[in-house]
Amino acid sequence: MRPLYVDLDGTLIATDSLHESLLQLVRASPASLLALPLWLLRGKAVLKKEVAQRTAIDVQTLPYRPEVLELVRSARAAGRRTVLATATDGQVARAVASHLGLFDAVLASDGEHNLRGAGKRAAIEADAGSRAYSYAGNDHVDLAVWREAEAAVVVSRSEALARRVAGLTAVEARIVPPRTPLKRYLYGVRLHQWLKNVLVFLPLMPVLHELTQPILLHAALAFLAFGLMASGIYVLNDLLDLESDRRHHRKRLRPFAAGEITAREGLVMAGLLCAASLALSLALLPGAFVSVLLLYMALTCAYSLHLKRRAVVDVFALAGLYTIRVAAGTAATGLPLSFWILSFSMFIFLSLALAKRYVELSGPPLEVQRMKRDRGYHPVDAPFVLCTGIAAGQMAVLLLGLYLHDKEVLARYDDPEYLWILIPLFLFWTMRVWLKAIRGALHDDPVVFAARDWVSRWTVGIAALALWMAD
Prior knowledge:
Helix content: 55-70%
Number of helices: 21
Order of helices and strands: EHHHHEHEHEHEHEHHHHHHHHHHHHH
């Protein structure tokens, strides 16, 4: 019976292992990017070898295509020889084959020979000898192999590719991966997280009775620019966290971790979103806003690459990223930057960031181990996180009270006594968030929890009513 040779990237797995290895390398050592051109000048096989030696893809969590796995199992059950034939470096390919236990041999790049296109065909023919063989692939570059194969397995949605393969050899099987729906791309850019960018409107609250159309327009544009930038950074962050997300009970379902959107597509998405944000800001918003946006971009990238793996530093970075949104609102509208609002924002978001970490530290044992490995928090840190988070929340309420007692603030309102409703209201809300966290009923992102929680919605509504009555 003819042996079955199976490609790895895009065929056996719904991703590209080289792209994921490069992302892992960037996360672990950003300076290594400088060496990539030098490795590439020595050949693609050398590049793959150097990257593979410096990274360790978790082959257990890769998004394998179940239909291709079943095809290989059926071939083995029928007595056929199965071989993993890939342009991926041998270190990665052998790890995949060892994990699956479905292949009799591995043909892969070795630092000297890049098994792609004609190079892969030559390696397969040398391995098969005079025997006819079948080959499973997914891309136009595989036509060089299919041209000499007796049969083909086409793993692609492309009708044009399927027709070309059918004109070269017999098609043994056709596997059509499901098309990624638009809503998964929208989820990938985290549109629901745009709720956080409402903070750019916070500086407008003390001057509701003085708002003008230009101020509102600039605030709306700042909201849009921050949303685009945040989405681009979220995509990049998800790409850098692929392996960690795949080990998470919920995050493994995200479109990038699940292989529904490839790393290459994700990088394009991130680049376009960030470019659109900068173009909008440069064209329509003040230079001060652009500076704040660039600061946000730099801090977010630093968080994704390094800061989030440093206990305590990570929550201060998160709180800073929220507070920067408030500063962006003042920069976009020209309104004065309030010390009280910035202080309140820093403490309330520090409390919420700590609540997020407390929920993760109170999760399943595997999640707690992930926190130790990826975030620098140990299980014994939970009481410290709990106490510090509650204290930060109460400090935020105290600062709110001091702010509302400020004479300049009181002078802006006709009936400022209604503002005091805000103090017990926010105290109640922060205490309830932490009670939910302790009981394990809090989503690991408090902002998402607040958006879905009816009590939080009522809290915001009552706060808005109090501001309206005070005006």
